[in-house]
Input
Amino acid sequence: MQLGYLIPTVLAGVLALSGCGGEAPAPAVPTAPVPTVEELQPPYNEADVDAGKSLFGRQCASCHYVAAGKGHLVGPNLHGVFERGTGKAAGYNSYSPALKNFEHKVWTPELVDQWLLAPQGFVPGTGMFFNGLKNPEERRDLIAYLLIESRKP
Output
C-alpha cells in the first residue's frame, strides 16, 4: 500500500481545519476612544459594567470574542462593532442574508438593545439563535460593557 499520496492530502485537510476556532487575528477595526461609564449616554451611564461583563461571559462568549485581534468564533468578533457597520466584520463570512441586507447600516446602542431583546423578531431570518434578554437592566448592562470593551485597543 502506498502512503506517499495520502500524507499530503491529510496534511492539507489538517491545515484547512486549523483555521476553525477563531484563533486567526481579525483585521484591525477603527475604534472610538474608550469611554468611562460616566461618559456613556443615558441610560448606559447608570449601568453595572461588571454585571454586563458577567452576562457577556455567560450568554455571549461561547459565540463571540470582544477583544481586538482575537478573530471570530461561530459569531463575529464584536470588537469595534459600533464603528464598523452592520454585517461588516472583516474576515467573517457567515452573516445571514437577512443581516447582510439589514436596513440599518450602523449599530447603535438602541439597535443593539432591540437586537438583544429578540434577535429573530428584530431581524427575521438572522442566523443568530439566541432567545434574547427580556430584562431591560441586563440589556443596559451588557450594552454598556460592549460600548467600553469593544473599543479597547
Remarks:
- The chain has seven helices and no strands.
- The two ends are 54 Å apart (CA to CA).
- The mean pLDDT is 85.
